[in-house]
Specification:
This protein is an alpha/beta fold and 740 residues long. It contains 16 helices and 31 strands. Strands 14-15-18-19-20-21-22-23 form an eight-stranded parallel barrel. The radius of gyration is 28 Å and the shape is elongated.
């Protein structure tokens, strides 16, 4: 911004030795505009190029804009214009690439929740890019962290300057044209989600150039996209890519936050995942990644964390929102020194406040309209749905999303719980939403480890969970079915460990859930026993097959299709290393290569057959006068299940899916028809006879898939007569197509 203003260089107490601070003199800052919030490069009055800065700072006394030169010199300018609690100004000459932050002045009175401290440089909540990495020396805390009386340390203001120790926002020029981008717009019923970590998926991929590994550019590389296409997934769900910070307790142990559920910049792509530098290049790189995935027909869904920020509780650092208006952004307890914590992370954003709601919805719209993404998965979404204290499905957040013309048209996935009282809300979100269905996860795990007391819950889960979602016009695809997620065991570890092994996290193995519902197949951890390993691989095939044949939206976790292991760590949130990264060499190893091929084959089967992608719940009734019931359940005796059968323990169930009785019509108005299938799930440890249903269900069946087979490259093809008895191998799924 040379030549933009007359400046006065000063040295201030508390600044780093030798660092120069300059204060701008009027008229360095023109009035500018209060909207849009953030830093926007544009042409101002008289055709002068510059940047408009606007910051909501309710309750503060004044705000200083701080611009940083390449040599670290800081230039401060008072934002004197105030419109509806927004401080704003236009600075001529400030161009893209300029680093900046804010200092906000006001009262220091933690007992009433007021924590303004102008010694702390604050990140703009609307910053489009962030330059630098958050570390947590004492200078970045608003209070004196090492105060002798720790019980009152948060009440003593720290006067040291944090600017040398914190990242800065970067002015970015929004000049991309998305006119040539073609969003896949995959219908929910046809979707298959693949949850992945940008760094973890690409860091060890041998086909990606080394300089691109671990980055957005690496995920856009043909080698990465090619794997997604070979599998047949329709969407990637990226673990958090908003700018995040590492927690103090991890840094002190020499670890880092790997998963990223510690956001601090809701508009900025996380800079560490950029191969293009951090002076704004990360924004364009992210957009190119989205375009590359769209060109391959793959949607991009972001895992977003709007329920809390990286500033933690009252003893946490002052990085952004706390110093702008602590009382305005965070939920506080009646003792306003303390935070209401419904997230387990120290704080909870106060979403009922209009400016907080605006921050979240502005961020969501930005990622859709300017960054090109196709949807969001909301971490601890129940915390966002709390009005004052209780979860409220008529809350301002859900109401705003429902009427927003941009957001109501993208994919919205809720993690339908938080850690507060009444936070478990599976099945309760309104019709616009889909939900992670942990009851599906638990039922399927329990069935295959032989722990279900009866099969009632399994029946609901395999067929779309109508008991949870058949209300208010919701459809089976309201259920995101999963057996594993980033949080917990990998699929391979689920059949290899019965206990968590999180010692590497440095928390005495106390972190992570102990409710894993896993079975190690007879040995804890890696085994040299061929029989144990063969059984484990069979269980993996059973779990994947069950997931991909179930009604609803399946979600796979990156690497599960190739046998990825975390060595029994079920909480690898801080393992930014080989534990958390995918080992692509598994694709060359016998057993794991075949598992990948089976996954791709199951996805082709699902894509080909609409009976596996139903858009309406089963009715148990024929859809036509001469039709069969759309769904029927059978016992091994070949008889339809009675009410008593549902309440009894069972290791074997059969479900018949009628392809002649699919409700609805295709895009041309034609009736949808398909093959009919019989799926037999047998979790017993011995072979079992299963009498195949005869007329009117079928006169014969062709065996399509048998998970007892290691090699699934070709369909078995054996034909079995109706009313005949099929010998089902132990612990296997048999999928049969009605031949005639």
């Amino acid at each position: 911004m040379s030549g933009a203003a007359e400046q006065e260089a000063v040295r201030e107490p508390g600044t780093a030795a030798g660092r120069r601070v300059a204060r701008g003199r009027s008229p360095a800052v023109w009035p500018g505009a209060p909207t849009p919030l953030g830093a926007r490069f544009r042409v101002g009055p008289d055709g002068v190029a510059g940047t408009n800065f606007a910051l909501w700072a309710g309750g503060s006394d004044s705000v200083e804009l701080c611009l940083f030169d390449e040599d670290g010199t800081e230039r401060r300018f008072a934002l004197t214009e105030l419109t509806h609690e927004i401080r704003h100004g236009f600075v001529p000459g400030v161009r893209p690439g300029q680093r900046y932050g804010y200092r906000v002045h006001g009262r220091w009175d933690p007992w009433t929740g007021a924590r303004w401290n102008p010694a702390k440089l604050l990140l703009d909540p609307y910053a489009r890019a962030v330059d630098g990495t958050f570390t947590l020396p004492p200078e970045v805390y608003g209070h004196v962290r090492d105060w002798p009386q720790q019980q009152v340390a948060d009440t003593v203001r720290d006067e040291r300057d944090s600017a040398p120790h914190v990242p800065k926002g970067v002015v970015v020029h929004d000049d991309d044209d998305w006119a040539e981008d073609h969003r896949p717009k995959t219908p929910w019923a046809d979707s298959v989600i693949y949850e992945l970590h940008v760094r973890g998926f690409t860091e060890r991929h041998p086909g990606i150039p080394e300089e691109l590994r671990g980055t957005y550019a690496g995920l856009a590389h043909p080698a990465a996209v090619g794997h997604l296409l070979r599998l047949g997934v329709t969407a990637v769900e990226l673990l958090p890519v908003h700018q995040f910070a590492h927690e103090d307790h991890l840094l002190r142990r020499g670890l880092r936050n790997y998963w990223g559920y510690n956001s601090i910049g809701y508009f900025a792509p996380h800079a560490d995942y950029s191969a293009s530098g951090t002076a704004g290049g990360q924004v364009g790189e992210f957009k190119r990644m989205v375009r590359a995935l769209h060109d391959a027909g793959i949607e991009v869904i972001l895992d977003v964390v709007y329920n809390h920020t990286a500033e933690a509780g009252e003893l946490g650092p002052m990085l952004s929102l706390r110093g702008i208006d602590n009382r305005g952004y965070y939920r506080l307890q009646p003792d306003a020194r303390r935070y209401a914590d419904y997230t387990g992370c120290g704080n909870t954003l106060h979403v009922v406040q209009p400016h907080v709601l605006r921050l979240i919805t502005d961020s969501l719209r930005y990622w859709v309209t300017e960054m090109g993404v196709d949807g969001f998965r909301f971490d601890l979404a129940a915390a966002l749905a709390r009005s004052m204290h209780d979860v409220d499905m008529l809350s301002p957040f859900l109401a705003v999303i429902a009427q927003d013309p941009v957001l109501r048209r993208v994919k919205l996935i809720a993690e339908p719980w938080d850690v507060g009282s009444g936070g478990y809300q599976v099945g309760a979100f309104p019709p616009l939403w889909t939900e992670w269905n942990d009851r599906y996860r638990d039922a399927v795990r329990d069935f295959w480890r032989g722990a279900l007391p009866d099969v009632r819950d399994l029946g609901y889960r395999l067929t779309g969970s109508s008991d949870l979602y058949a209300w208010g016009g919701r459809r089976p695809y309201a259920s995101v079915n999963f057996v594993t997620a980033h949080d917990g065991f990998t699929l391979r570890d689920l059949v290899s460990y019965e206990q968590k092994h999180n010692e590497a996290n440095g928390e005495g193995n106390r972190d992570g859930t102990s409710d894993n519902r896993s079975w190690n197949c007879g040995a804890e951890g890696e085994s040299e026993d061929p029989a144990v390993n063969a059984l484990r691989r069979r269980q993996l095939r059973n779990l994947l097959t069950t997931l991909l044949l179930s009604t609803g939206v399946p979600m796979l976790v990156a690497g599960d299709e190739m046998g990825r292991t975390q060595g029994g760590n079920n909480n690898a949130y801080c393992q930014d290393n080989e534990t958390g990264w995918l080992d692509w060499s598994l694709l060359e190893q016998p057993g794991w290569r075949e598992l990948t091929e089976l996954t791709a084959r199951l996805l082709r089967l699902r894509r080909t057959h609409p009976v596996l992608r139903r858009r309406a719940f089963f009715s148990g009734l024929p859809q036509a006068a001469d039709g069969l019931r759309d769904l029927a359940w059978f016992t091994p005796r070949g008889t339809e299940m009675t009410e008593g059968d549902w309440y009894a323990p069972a290791a074997t169930v059969g479900l018949f899916l009628s392809g002649r009785d699919i409700p609805g019509r295709d895009a041309r108005g034609e009736q949808i028809t398909d093959d009919s299938f019989l799926a037999i799930l047998h979790a017993g440890h011995r072979p079992a006879g299963f009498r195949l249903p005869g007329s009117p269900w079928a006169r014969s069946y062709e065996l399509v898939l048998d998970t007892s087979r290691e090699d699934q490259t070709a369909a078995p093809g054996t034909v079995h007569p109706g009313d005949g008895t099929l010998t089902v191998p132990p612990r296997s799924v048999q999928l049969l197509r009605v031949a005639r």
